[in-house]
């Protein structure tokens, strides 16, 4: 045993890495190691011999294991010291030049319109992007035969066989947030609902996913005149013009009655859009007085309260303000495009100067 002790303690002391240390462990105290083989010989000894050899073998095994643990810790410490010696950084060196980030035009437009409507007394409301068809359609007075409910226009979520829950869709507008907000808050209420929406369409002015902001104001004495004033103030602040002329054209939306599409007076001078002047008109949003059935679906008495609602495409607003010709480029993840149209990372929206390009 003294020979085994001297042999393996010497090998452990000379081991240069953990692989060598593991090989020594297996040879010494592994299942087929020399110490294990010696222990098997105890059965052949007399009781008197076992009383002497058994404790001695156990002590030898414990001593070898202790030496292995100590050597392993020493090797780990040496490796850490070497790593600390080689992986160092001179903090007095000049920093590397780093390209500054940029705000996406859609994010910029969203921040600006949120700030503008906050000045007009509107709070921001949010809701789920996956909706059941009651909130997305039925509560908004959209009948079952309406084209918007067809699978060619709306993304429906897959349902397993036997699932009796209502169909769920990727929301086609942020109007469901209006219903949820009325249910939660009641009346009076004044909110905007910005966020992403989905429709099965793709061309220069449409993408399957885009951004929209809808506004809702409910009270006892709200009229179309209030709607007109709010939209005029918003357009003047967002496009940074002193005066603007809006034209309301009769239209039809299931969730408003009466309904109107809103055009803005503009001109195109050498391909540059100018808001508030000229002889051209451009449609920018849809609006109207909230349908009584929609108010009732939100848990509010339509005999007592009334209000207006409107919806605007945020991507379209960004296109118009910053001169971006193709909506699809918003989602192409082209860094060259973002660097061209982006904003400095610390730019913040404000109602006094704006960030026109």
Automatic annotation (TrEMBL):
Mg(2+) binds at residue 257. The gene is pheS. This is Phenylalanine--tRNA ligase alpha subunit. It is found in: Cytoplasm. It comes from the Bacteria. Its cofactor is Mg(2+). Binds 2 magnesium ions per tetramer. Its main location: cytoplasm. Residues 116-349 form the Aminoacyl-transfer RNA synthetases class-II family profile domain.
């Amino acid at each position: 045993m003294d020979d085994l002790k001297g042999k393996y303690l010497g090998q452990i002391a000379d081991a240069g890495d953990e692989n060598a240390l593991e090989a020594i462990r297996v040879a010494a105290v592994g299942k087929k190691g020399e110490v294990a083989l010696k222990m098997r010989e105890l059965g052949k000894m007399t009781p008197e011999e076992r009383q002497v050899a058994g404790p001695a073998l156990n002590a030898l095994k414990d001593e070898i294991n202790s030496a292995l643990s100590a050597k392993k810790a020493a090797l780990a410490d040496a490796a850490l010291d070497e790593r600390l010696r080689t992986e160092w950084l001179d903090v007095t060196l000049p920093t590397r030049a780093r390209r500054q980030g940029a705000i996406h035009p859609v994010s910029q437009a969203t921040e600006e319109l949120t700030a503008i409507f906050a000045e007009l007394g509107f709070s921001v409301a949010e809701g789920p992007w996956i909706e059941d068809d009651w909130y997305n359609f039925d509560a908004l007075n959209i009948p079952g035969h309406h084209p918007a409910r067809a699978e060619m226009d709306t993304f429906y979520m897959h349902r397993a066989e036997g699932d009796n829950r209502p169909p769920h869709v990727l929301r086609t507008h942020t109007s469901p947030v209006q219903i949820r907000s009325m249910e939660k808050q009641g009346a009076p209420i004044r909110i905007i609902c910005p966020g992403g929406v989905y429709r099965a369409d793709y061309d220069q002015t449409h993408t399957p996913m885009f951004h929209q902001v809808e506004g809702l104001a409910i009270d006892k004495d709200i009229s179309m005149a209030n709607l007109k004033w709010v939209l005029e103030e918003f357009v003047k602040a967002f496009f940074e013009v002193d005066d603007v002329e809006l034209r309301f054209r009769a239209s039809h939306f299931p969730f408003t009655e009466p309904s109107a599409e809103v055009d803005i007076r503009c001109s195109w001078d050498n391909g540059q859009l100018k808001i508030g002047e000229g002889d051209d008109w451009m449609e920018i949003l849809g609006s109207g007085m909230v349908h009584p059935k929609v108010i009732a679906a939100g848990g509010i008495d339509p005999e007592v309260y009334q209000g207006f609602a409107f919806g605007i495409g945020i991507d379209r607003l960004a296109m118009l303000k910053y001169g971006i010709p193709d909506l699809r480029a918003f989602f192409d993840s082209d860094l060259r495009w973002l660097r061209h149209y982006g904003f400095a990372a610390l730019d913040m929206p404000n109602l006094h100067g704006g960030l026109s390009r």
